Amino acid sequence: MQVQLPSPKLAATNLACRRGDRLLFRKLSFALEGGQALHITGANGTGKTTLMRCLAGLTTPFAGGVERAENLGLLDERPALDLDQPLGKALGFWNALDGGADPAEAHDKLGLRGLLEVPVRYLSTGQRKRAGLAALMGRSVQTWLLDEPLSGLDTAAIETVTQLIEGHVKSGGIALIASHQRLDIEGLQTLELGDFAPSHQLEEEE
Amino acid sequence: MIGTLLKRDLAKFFPFAGGGASLPVMFFVAVAMLYPFAVGPDVNILSRTGGGVVWIAALLAAILPLEKLVGQDIELGFFDQLRLRGLTEELMMAVRLVAHWLSFGPPLILATFPAAALLAIDSPTLHLLLLGLLAGTPGLAAIGLMIAALTASLRAGAALSGLLMVPLALPILIFGAGALARQDGASLGFVAAISLGLVAMAPFAAGAAIKAAREV
């Protein structure tokens, strides 16, 4: 019997974020509970990555507030693996830090078994992305922030990763996915970040 | 958790663990080796000025690892992932400071023995030199860490960090090398005090710097 964890929550109220001097979006509100997934779409430069980092607590919002769990997982284009180390050792560091379970299952699922001896430097974009996901799976966090989780992945891997996300959501987790690709996940909600761009809203108000 | 992090940082920075981190020690010995060629083999001149040369070499050797010290891990998103696991930036930087000092302080102190032989440094001077480096290198490591964290997000960061290190390290150099000239260990107390202050300050300053680097 699994220990019943309190239902996770991720919410933003009237959130506005900027990058440099430019306001990217404003008046963004949403609330997610365990078992829900939200797909963030938007053209390049609308602030998907900034939103992710803001929700993760890595940057301070320009206005508004974020409500989130103490610990959450973020997967972005930087998997934080030492370039000179073989993949197995680089992932082993995070596993030791998280005190996680045996990582072999996650490695098998993501097809990393044959790559564990290869230095991270020589891995392709898609392979690194999969390694980052393996590190995320090793943590028992309920909130997943995924920034372009499917970029660089081949067709088979896209299916595996989609299933992983779906499984995570079904088991009561939260997934927030910023992606340009279509996602086949049951009950997925969609949020177009471009709708919250400042100029767009001004036009509407006028 | 701290042990795991320290082990990883040491694997990245400790000399002979790969990654070209032995360069500062090689540089240090190379300066000691070149100096007699440049000023001539006069034992009197060498033993009188050798201690100062060792101090300058130590200061310059401390600049070499700065480029990789913080910037690379910011680019890799390493500190972000640690932050998401609830570690504070101050703790990350404190661990980094220990790893940085361990990977250049003790190796430099050991390399002082061959350097002293090359520069005909006598035994009382060597004694003061070793004590001075033991007291001074933590301070040099702390200055280096603060500068590396501050300049990590700048494009010309590496060149700038070398320039910034020199004036800030001056007090340690003056008191450390001054002890040799007067053959009196009293001023090494100042070196230790400066180091202590810098070591206490560095994790907070460097932590604030990497936090600020995210907000661009």
Account of the protein in words:
The complex is a heterodimer of chains A (206) and B (216). Chain A is an alpha/beta fold. Chain A contains 6 helices and 8 strands. In chain A, β6, α5 and β7 form a beta-alpha-beta unit. Chain A is globular, with a radius of gyration of 18 Å. Chain B is mainly alpha-helical and 216 residues long. Helix content of chain B is 82%, strand content 0%. Chain B contains 10 helices and no strands. In chain B, α3 packs antiparallel against α7, α7 crosses α10 and α9 packs antiparallel against α10. The model of chain B has no long low-confidence stretch (mean pLDDT 90). The chains are: A alpha/beta (206), B mainly alpha (216).
How many helices of chain B in DSSP terms? 10
Largest sheet of chain B: none
Q: Order of strands in the sheet with the most strands of chain A?
A: 5-6-7-3-8
Compute the average pLDDT of chain B.
90
* Gyration radius of chain A, in Å: 18 Å
Content-based structural category of chain B: mainly alpha
**What are the secondary-structure elements of chain B, in order, as H or E?**
HHHHHHHHHH
Helix content of chain A: 25-40%
Give the DSSP E fraction of chain A (strand runs of 2 or more residues): 15-25%
Oligomer: heterodimer
Element string of chain A (H = helix, E = strand):
EEEHEEHHHEHEEH
Question: What is the structure about, briefly put?
Answer:
Chain A has 206 residues and is α/β, with parallel strands linked by helices.
Give me some keywords for this one.
heterodimer, A: 206 residues, alpha/beta, five-stranded parallel sheet, three-stranded antiparallel sheet, 6 helices, 31% helix, globular, B: 216 residues, mainly alpha, 10 helices, 82% helix, 0% strand
